[in-house]
Structure formats: C-alpha cells, structure tokens
User: Which sequence fits this backbone?
C-alpha cells in the first residue's frame, strides 16, 4: 500500500503527537502507512502525489482569514506551501481529507469565502448530514445526526464553486463539503475523542479559544460527550482510497 500523508502544523509536541496517534488509530493505519510532515518545523519537502494514497491535513492553531499583519512568517510560508499542494491535489484529483484547518485550506484555494462569521466555541455540537452526505461513499457510513467536537475561529461562509455540502450544524452551515469526487473537508474534528479534546484544551488554554479560567468547566463539559461516530469518516476515507 502506498502511504497517506498527514500535513500537520501544531508546534506543541503533545498536541501534535496526540493528533498523529489519533489519525493512526481511527484510520486503522500503521506508522509506515501514514507519513507525517510537520510543516511548522520547516519547509515542505517534495511530495510525489503519484506515490501516495491520499493527503490528510490536520487541525491547526493558524487562522486562514487573519489579516496578513497578524500572521507569522511561519504561517505565511505554511499557507503558501499548502495552497500550492492543494492546487496540485485538485488538478490531479488526488484523494484529500482536511480536518478543521483543512476547510480553510481547501475552501480558500477553491474559491470559497472563509471568515469568522460561523466560528464555534470548543465543545460537542450536533452535526446533520445533508441528503448528499447520506449518499456520499465516504460520509454515508455516519448516522444522519451525530455529535462531534468543534472549536474554530473561522469557517466556510460561502462554499467554493461546485462544492457539495455534506453536513451542517445549527451554528455552522458548512460542517463538511466535497469538491469533485475525491476531495473532502470537515469543520468538525473526525480524529477527536474525549481524551484528545481534553489534551487540546490543556495545550491551547491561552490560544484565545476560551478564557483560561474556564478550563475545568470546559473539561467537565466535553467529558460527558458521546463522539463515537466522527472517526468513522477517517476509516471510511482510508478504506476507500488505500492503494
């Protein structure tokens, strides 16, 4: 099997390693089958899309829609590298799954509007598949409505031309979309279980997603959530595109 590639951007080792382990576990992959590239650590190496099964983009502390003056040099570099690769992914119809930050990446590159209109606080929200989502070969494994963890400062306000909206939630109209037949993006986190989001809450307590003094209450709140369904997306994507 040709490996999948995980493009990661989390500078904090605890969060970065936890994300990678979750992708392995829920995707049913070994470390040899999922090559991780930490873009925040250095320039993206050459990636031959003909030699991979697909590309996965993880979440990120970066916010695509931030004004340029607020972006670090690392973020500017990462965004440029991701944009160039995403354009190649679209041109070659390479399987792609973007989780949270991947919505901004795929949405912007494909011509959509991504901004802070539909930001959501950290927590579990009910996500509902559209009719297109229920019929989709990757998303169709999910229940019609399920809970998933979110926590984002931006989201898709206007989907890219030709995008098919696959899932929605009360506070965010575009929780997932597909471009063409093989490129997917989710606003919710398909890799996050309760232990994973508790780690993120601890690591990012000063990142502006919530007030630092809310950590204990937020941890108690997310610990009661049932988020068994979202990881099915990862497994379904891997099973469909492994080659």
Assistant:
């Amino acid at each position: 099997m040709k490996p999948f590639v995980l493009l990661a951007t989390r500078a904090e080792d605890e969060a970065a390693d936890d994300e990678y382990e979750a992708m392995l576990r829920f995707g049913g992959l070994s470390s040899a089958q999922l090559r991780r590239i930490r873009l925040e650590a250095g320039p993206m190496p050459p990636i031959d899309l003909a030699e991979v099964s697909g590309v996965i983009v993880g979440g990120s502390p970066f916010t695509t829609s931030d004004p340029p003056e607020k972006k670090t040099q690392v973020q500017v570099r990462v965004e440029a590298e991701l944009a160039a690769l995403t354009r190649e992914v679209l041109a070659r119809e390479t399987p792609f799954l973007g989780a949270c930050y991947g919505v901004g990446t795929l949405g912007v590159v494909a011509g959509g509007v991504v901004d802070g209109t539909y930001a959501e606080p950290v927590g579990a929200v009910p996500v509902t598949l559209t009719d297109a989502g229920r019929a989709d070969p990757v998303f169709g494994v999910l229940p019609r409505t399920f809970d998933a963890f979110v926590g984002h400062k931006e989201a898709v306000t206007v989907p890219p031309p030709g995008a098919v909206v696959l899932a929605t939630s009360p506070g965010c109209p575009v929780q997932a979309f597909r471009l063409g037949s093989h490129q997917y993006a989710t606003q919710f986190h398909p890799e996050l279980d309760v232990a994973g989001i508790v780690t993120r809450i601890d690591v990012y307590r000063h990142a502006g997603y919530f007030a630092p003094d809310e950590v204990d209450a937020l941890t108690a709140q997310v610990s009661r959530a049932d988020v068994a369904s979202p990881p099915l997306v990862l497994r379904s994507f891997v099973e469909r595109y492994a080659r």
Notes: The longest helix spans residues 73-92. The chain has one domain: 4-241. The radius of gyration is 16 Å.
